[in-house]
Amino acid sequence: MVKCPNCGAEIDHLINWSGVEEKFIFRVNKNGNVEYEYVDSSSKTKNDYCCPECGEVLFFDEELATKFLKGEISAEMWRFHRGKE
Ligand SMILES: [Zn+2]
Fold first, then answer.
1. CA of residue 55 to ligand 1 center, whole Å
2. Domains of the chain: which residue ranges?
3. How far is the CA of 11 from the centre of ligand 1 (A)?
4. Virtual CA dihedral for 55, 7, 61, 68, nearest 10 degrees?
5. In 3-state terms, what secondary structure has residue 35?
6. How many angstroms is it from 68 CA to the middle of ligand 1?
7. Minimal CA–CA distance to 49: which of 9, 14, 3, 85?
8. Of the candidates 85, 77, 82, which has an alpha carbon nearest to the alpha carbon of residue 2?
9. What's the pTM?
10. pLDDT digit string (tens) for 7-30?
11. CB under 8 Å to 82, separation ≥6 — which residues?
12. Most buried in the list 1, 28, 48, 77, measured by CB within 10 Å?
């Protein structure tokens, strides 16, 4: 088990949110109704690894998330890395 560097909960897994983001133009039309006009979808796939307890996004790539679950990334290392983003 490792500890979430954000909330301190002991966790043995992360929640992975993965998907393509779609872009829309959002506006309010003359009649006061909202409209979404599809533009395109991003080629970049959203890939977040979150704590199952607090929901904080801890990592954005599988390599770091794997190291974290193996206990190779300490809370201090995580905070240092986060501070640079
Ligand atoms: Zn947490």
1. 6
2. 2-20+46-84
3. 8
4. -140
5. strand
6. 13
7. 14
8. 77
9. 0.71
10. 999 999 999 998 888 999 999 999
11. none
12. 48
